[in-house]
C-alpha cells in the first residue's frame, strides 16, 4: 500500500489545481504566461505542434489503446498488462477530471485549431502522451526511453499552449495526474521479486543502454 499512498498526494494536488484554475485571477495569470509561449510562433514550430496534436489526439488514443490491448492478449505478460493499464488509467483520469472541473478553453480567437468547445482542464493530449511515455518505459526499461519520453511530454506541453488550446496549468495538471495514476497502477501495494524479468522497475531503476 506504500506506493498507493504515495500517489494520493498527487491526486490531491491535481484536484486543488482544478479548483484554483477556475478562479478568474489564476486564469488571467495563466493566460499571460500562455501568450509568452505564443509570441514565438513560426512555421517550423507550428508544424511540430500540429504533428503532436495529430499524433496524440482522441483518434490516436483509441488506436494506441487497441494496439496495446491486442499486444497484451498476444504476449500475455505482466509488463504488457501494466503498460496497457498505465495508458488507460492516465488517459481515463484526464477525461474524468474534465468532467469534474469546468474550465473553458483560452479565447478561440487565439487558437490555431479553432473553437474546440471542450473544457480545458487538464490537457487530454498531454495525459495521453505522458501515459504512453510511461508505458514505453515499462515495456523497454531503458534510460534512453526516459529521455525520449521527457522530451516528447515537454514538447507536447509547450505545443498545447503554443496552439492556444490550453493554459499552462492545464498541461501541468495532466502530468501530475498521469504521475499519480502510474504510481498506483505500477506498484499497487504488491511485492515484486527483484530478480524477476517481469518485474517493473521502481522509480529511479532502469536498465543501462
Structure, explained:
The protein has a single domain, classed as Vanadium-containing Chloroperoxidase, domain 1, CATH 1.20.144. Helices cover 70% and strands 0% of the residues. The protein contains eight helices and no strands. The longest helix is centred in the middle third of the chain and has 23 residues, at 78-100. The chain is globular and about 50 Å long. It starts with a helix and ends in a 22-residue tail after the last helix.
Number of strands: 0
* Major beta-sheet overview: none
Structural class comes to: mainly alpha
What is the gyration radius calculated from CA atoms?
17 Å
CATH architecture, by name, is: Up-down Bundle
Number of helical segments?
A: 8
Q: How would you sum up the global shape?
A: globular
* CATH secondary-structure class: Mainly Alpha
The N- to C-terminal Cα distance equals 31 Å
Order of helices and strands: HHHHHHHH
* Proportion of strand residues: under 5%
- Average per-residue pLDDT, rounded, comes to 87
Which topology does CATH recognise? Vanadium-containing Chloroperoxidase, domain 1
> In the residues, how many domains can be counted?
1
Uncertain stretches of 5 or more adjacent residues: 193-200
Q: What portion of residues is helical?
A: 55-70%
